[in-house]
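Today's session is about reading a structure prediction critically. Students often jump straight to the picture, but the first step is always the sequence itself: look for stretches that repeat, for charged clusters, for runs of hydrophobic residues. Only then move on to the predicted structure, which in these notes is written as discrete structure tokens rather than atom positions. Here is the chain we will use throughout the hour.
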Amino acid sequence: PDCRGALLFLEDINEYIYRIDRCLSTLRLTGALGQLAGVVLGRFTKCEPGEGYGSLTLDEVFDDYFLPLNVPVFRGAAIGHIKRKLTVPVGAAAEMDAGAGTIRLLGAAVA
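Below is the predicted structure for this chain, in token form.
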């Protein structure tokens, strides 16, 4: 997929960490991760290691995939399966400041 300059938004609920690792591995193998401008990590509710699948934490998995990219990573965004969340329009032009914890739409989200 063409992900040049894209922000990748991720969140999940009730998923084993090894499955999240596998999904990120697929994105890396396709070359998609290397094209990203940044990553936004929302809430990962009840995401636990599966039995017999090692003991990496979710943060360790994220560091393994995202630190080598040398792109900003915004952790703890209010997206996901939570009561108070932001709506994320797919495909809209946006910019983020990971240090400030902000995401700003650069234009209309719908035509």
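Discussion point for the tutorial: Residues 7-105 form a domain with the Glucose Oxidase; domain 1 fold (CATH 3.50.30.60).
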